[in-house]
Amino acid sequence: MSAEASGSTGPRRWLLIVLACLAVGGLAFAIGRFSAFGTSPSTPSTSSAEAGFARDMQVHHAQAIAMAMEIYRKTDDEQLRALSYDIATGQSGQRGEMFEWLVSWGLPQSGGPLMGWMASGESGHEHGGDEAGPAQTEDEARAAMGMASDAELDALAQATGESADCLFLQLMIRHHEGSVPMAEAVLDLGSEPRVLQVAETIRVGQTAEIAAMQSMQERLGCTP
User: Is 41 exposed, middle or buried (0-12, 13-18, 19+ CB in 10 A)?
Assistant: First the structure.
């Protein structure tokens, strides 16, 4: 089915769904977690879940932004074009804020293995029930985070038309599926109010975007 046949209301409908999910999730989270907003007991340390989340999510977001801008430049599908723009701009803003967190905390922008904080945050709790701990190599960690390989990124850059659209959706769904557990981990392990607020926005928003992208896959007839 062509992009035109999907109707001009398609992009608006999915953007409204995402925005509505963000609003509902944000309100529920505020009620449950922010009665003491602004009363964080101390600045996060370099080994904290908050610092690990800020570092790893910056890496994660950077790839999502690059993939989103790649498909934004060349897709003819207006619904996908609108969503890719939303992903690129939204995650650019979040990435910049995470950079500023680390600056304000006096911490380096890198440090520790990818996902290491998810197994043992500052609280000392393990997350995810993985007795083996975090991935032992960077490649394993990047795969667990749902990130695309260099070969997949090259394939996306070379693809055109609906093949490019379908490959982008496949890669970005997997990418989002990797970020949701990261957001859930810092929600479980962290205590810094603003970090928890952004993590909940990511959890709710990217879950909604996964559903939107799965719907696009069905409309475009993308094969698994």
Answer: exposed
